[in-house]
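Students often ask why inverse folding is considered easier than folding. One informal answer: many sequences map to the same fold, so there is more than one right answer. In these notes we will look at a single instance of the problem. The structure comes first.
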């Protein structure tokens, strides 16, 4: 018996008269293709029909899996660092708009009015008399 993968011989086995043969090998997802076998009983070689095997599973290449994992991890860290940098930039920009470079509020002197010392701010108190005392 001969065993084929995409018309390439994988191996061969001998079998006793009237018996069958088996061929063990490891399959990975990338081996999904056409398999077949052939037999020679001394009267001629007979080939089986092609059988399509679809193998579903993760890729066999562990290096690829590790590379993909490391890449995803690095991209995540890069994304977090970029987000942190943007947040810091906008906070710094916002804070610099509130305060001038001297650390004082950034309004103009015209906008600021000191409260008048002569105005009466407490409506419960009567206005002060202008120089004369009243008697009852």
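Output (designed amino acids):
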């Amino acid at each position: 018996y001969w065993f084929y993968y995409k018309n390439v011989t994988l191996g061969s086995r001998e079998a006793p008269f009237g018996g069958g043969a088996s061929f063990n090998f490891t399959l990975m997802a990338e081996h999904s293709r056409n398999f077949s076998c052939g037999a020679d009983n001394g009267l001629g070689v007979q080939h089986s029909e092609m059988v399509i095997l679809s193998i579903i599973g993760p890729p066999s290449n562990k290096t690829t899996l590790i590379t993909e994992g490391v890449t995803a991890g690095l991209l995540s860290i890069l994304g977090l660092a970029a987000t942190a940098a943007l947040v810091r930039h906008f906070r710094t920009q916002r804070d610099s708009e509130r305060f001038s470079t001297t650390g004082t509020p950034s309004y103009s002197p015209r906008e600021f009015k000191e409260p008048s010392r002569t105005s009466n701010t407490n409506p419960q108190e009567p206005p002060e008399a202008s120089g004369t005392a009243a008697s009852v």
